[in-house]
Predict the structure.
Amino acid sequence: MKPATAAKKLDVYLPATPAEFREGTITREELAALQADPPEWLRTLRAEGPHPKNLVAAKLGVSNSALVRNGITEALTTAQINELLEEMPEWLSVERAKQIELRREERRLKSLREDKRREREEAENADD
């Protein structure tokens, strides 16, 4: 597989990986080996970053779009993420609240769909 695909599966920022990783191809066996027993560079990268945008967003508790809206377009290190969490700028606080509300609404809608599905099943079973 391509290095970009492998990096995505490993949840690491491709430009921060070693040149031999970026320049070669990775077999499924090699990927499995990296996941099972990560080398030092992978452990360090996962712990310290820089992290890909999706992980930065998750660690900050916001969406990828929220990062872009607020000017964060580059990968961040763990230290930079922790600094943002400590400072808690207004934009981050607002975006986190939006994300919490979005997740709450998604759970509510999922519950409604489940209730309707159960009602349909009960009605179908009652007809039988």
Remarks:
- The mean pLDDT is 93.
